[in-house]
Write a structure and sequence with these properties.
The mean pLDDT is about 95. The protein has 20 helices and twelve strands. By secondary structure, the chain is mainly α. A hairpin with a 3-residue loop joins β6 and β7. The structure holds glutamic acid.
């Protein structure tokens, strides 16, 4: 395949759990390889293992890909709906003497394994059923592929370079189980052939399967595709990334408040590089990605860097990219996105102070919904009788001031000046009046985000609180 051949590749997850970080990165590399070469990205769900595959997990994978906007050009295809294709291929290999029925009992296979281990050898099937004169009665056989006994299987991996296996290390692989279902290595070859895949991109935990698959291609008189095995992802301690490192499902990162664009940028850099640049929008990636530039070495998951990228996208992404995610997070904590500032305004203000959308929405409740009570400590300190006059004076100005952060900032300053008080004497009481507590963005932006009607009502509420308190102590 020349460098300019459009890449036709696929992502082929087994639906036995969520779409985890490693799977999402493989999917991204597949998508990028296809997009950057003008080829196609195919999604195939490998659900032949009926016991371990679940529909929830299929859905979780589809949702994860959708969130990352890794849209397939073809599919999703489901292996469970393609059984006749595998059956036909099994029959063909049987007819051509390239596969055979194996009746060996579990006990016999177990014994073979134990004996090999005792001799310090790698367990392999001994080919016992290759030449059976009389098949035993009453036993459902599996079908095994007759792997070549000698010779070398060599391929040039697009990430790892040349790789070789000796056929003597490979045994006769089961291609069909007793229940008629195909095994992974077989179904994957039949499908990749049928789908005209020219580059298989997958995790390097599959490297050992590749020579077996190449032998199967040859048995089916077909040219194997090319392969690119991408290295695994490690946690910050250098061990393989797993649950104990924190969230491993890609949608869990959505729940934690990350933007899909940040995740895509982060995942791309987790193993792929282009000079020492760190920030890549989707279009940059499509333009620059080449599978050969994926590192051979495993990469470490680094939450700090993801946070940094997330904040970068929160600050710079166009409102249309951020708004749907922000709305999702607001609804998730019971807030109505229509009941407060526009997403772009909120994010513009909060992104400097927050790394995630979760932090943003948690600190933005008062912009979307009224609160019942002032936080007692803050109220005690700031909603005192001395604050009444400045708050009243400001309220009067707010009734018809232009509602922009600039004009609001001026109104606050002018009020403090006219009363000859420092800004703190007005700013902090105002903040507690507006937010219910003492933390918020700058006071002009806080006012702006709260909105005129709510600001006036909340100042009234604060004034009533101050009056009540004065009455109670007076
Ligand atoms: N279903 C396999 C997996 O999830 C696919 C491997 C491949 O891409 O060939 O690991």
């Amino acid at each position: 395949m020349s460098d300019s051949t459009p890449i036709r590749t696929r992502f082929a997850p087994s639906p036995t759990g969520f779409l985890h970080i490693g799977g999402a990165r493989t999917a991204l590399f597949c998508w990028l390889a296809a997009r950057s070469s003008g080829g196609e990205f195919i999604l195939r769900i490998e659900d032949t293992d009926r016991e371990r595959s679940t529909s929830e997990s299929v859905q979780a994978i589809l949702d994860g890909l959708e969130w990352l906007e890794l849209d397939p050009d073809e599919g999703p295809f489901y292996q469970s709906q393609r059984m006749p294709l595998y059956q036909a291929a099994v029959e063909r290999l049987l007819d051509e003497g390239k596969a055979y029925r194996c009746y060996c009992s579990r006990e016999r296979l177990e014994k073979l394994r134990e004996d090999a281990m005792a001799r310090g050898e790698k367990p392999r099937y001994d080919g016992h059923c290759r030449h059976l004169d009389e098949p035993p009665k009453g036993i459902e056989p599996v079908i095994r592929f007759r792997n070549p006994d000698s010779g070398i299987v060599a391929f040039k991996d697009r990430v790892r370079g040349p790789i070789e296996f000796d056929n003597r290390e490979l045994d006769d692989l089961v291609i069909q189980r007793t229940d008629g279902s195909p095994t992974y290595n077989f179904a994957v070859v039949v499908d990749d052939l049928d789908m005209r895949i020219n580059l298989v991109i997958r995790g390097d935990d599959h490297i050992n399967n590749t020579p077996r698959q190449i032998n199967l291609y040859h048995a089916l008189d077909a040219e194997p595709p090319e392969f690119a095995h991408v290295p695994m992802i490690l946690g910050d301690d250098g061990a393989r990334l797993s649950k104990r490192h924190g969230a491993v499902g890609v949608l869990a990162w959505r729940e934690l408040g990350y933007l899909p664009d940040a995740m895509v940028n982060y995942l791309a850099r987790l193993g792929w590089s282009h000079g020492d640049r760190e920030q890549f929008g989707r279009d940059d990636l499509v333009e620059l990605f080449r599978i050969e530039d994926v590192n051979r070495k495993a990469s470490r998951f680094d939450t700090e860097k993801l946070n940094w990228l997330n904040q970068h996208y929160l600050r710079t992404a166009p409102a249309a990219r951020v708004a749907p995610e922000l709305d999702w997070h607001l609804r998730r904590i019971g807030l109505d996105p229509a009941g407060g500032p526009a997403a772009a305004d909120l994010v513009r203000v909060q992104a400097d102070r927050c790394e995630t959308l979760v932090e943003i929405v948690e600190q933005s409740r008062p912009f979307y919904a009224d609160f019942d009570e002032f936080e007692p400590g803050a109220a005690k300190k700031h909603l005192r009788p001395v604050a009444a006059e400045p708050l009243k004076a400001l309220r009067d100005r707010l009734v018809d001031v232009e509602w922009t952060p600039e004009a609001l900032g001026q109104a606050v300053h002018a009020t403090a000046e006219s009363l000859e008080i420092g800004m703190g004497k007005l700013g902090q009481p105002l903040r507690v009046a507006l937010m219910g507590h003492g933390q918020s963005p700058s006071i002009d932006q806080t006012l702006w985000l709260v909105g005129r009607d709510r600001a006036l009502a909340r100042i009234d509420k604060a004034l009533a609180f101050i009056a009540e308190r004065a009455a109670a102590s007076g």
